[in-house]
User: What shape does this take?
Amino acid sequence: MDINQRTDNEQAALWNGRAGRAWVEAQQLLDRVLEPFQEPLVEAVRAGPAHRVLDVGCGTGSTTLAMARLLGAHERCIGVDISDPMIAAARTRAEREDARAGFICADAQIHDFEPAGFDLIVSRFGVMFFDNPVLAFANLRRAARDDARLRFIVWRSAAENPFMTTAERAAAPLLQNIPARRPGAPGQFSLADRHRVCAILEESGWADVDIQPLDVVCTLPEKELVGYFTRFGPLGLVLQDTDERTRTEVVDTVRRAFDPYVHGTEVRFAAACWRVDARAPSASAAPTEAAGV
Ligand SMILES: C[S@@+](CC[C@H](N)C(=O)[O-])C[C@H]1O[C@@H](n2cnc3c(N)ncnc32)[C@H](O)[C@@H]1O
Assistant: This one.
């Protein structure tokens, strides 16, 4: 990662530390869980035009590579992510597949992308972690050519996604140090409020904002469930520092709390998300301070 591009924020530390390593270790599992979200993004490439595509917060590169497979010899797909270990994993996958994809390790909020370099910008759950979302989406707007499209997927609220908070709710009576979710702060549910998403995008220079609910069923093998909740989310962050006895008790309690989601050998949960689309208006169409005066 280019040191000049690093913002010393909490999220950079998290994704370059425990969270990033957990995602790399569980890459195949997460790709299975998140697989239903890939198609709406790949579909945007198919709908075209998409000669230069940017995947923001690309992680270990699953979506970037799926899109790259559709592109021709003179087209290119770039993934950007703030996490060194995740980008390293993405590059390894790209080499293995001999894919037409490139990866940049940088903070998408401030990275100096080639101006007007992309005609499609997408993200699968990679845009909720910006500490300054308006700055970030304005930076992405500069990276987009006029009329380029933006499409990303984010989670709706925690209340609509109870599976995602099951572990921390069940473990709370046993562990006092689970980090609380802070409404509006960078994190999984930071873009749950569609009015906020719309305001952020319009303020950062995007137009024709369209926000649609995206409800899908996600699955994982039951035998992976403990590995899943002990690695991810607020519980995953603190469980590794917990003594063996408490850990065993927490794992038993939390596993029981997931029972309603277990159907034989499979875990199933409903994921409540937004599919957000926007367009980069041409400079002449963008509102100016003088407009309407
Ligand atoms: C929930 S993961 C999603 C990863 C990937 N899109 C996927 O679906 O597998 C969020 C990703 O956003 C990345 N991220 C967080 N803040 C970022 C930033 N400011 N710039 C670039 N990437 C960022 C994280 O490192 C992480 O890989």
User: Anything to note?
Assistant: The radius of gyration is 19 Å. The CA atoms of residues 155 and 273 lie 4 Å apart.
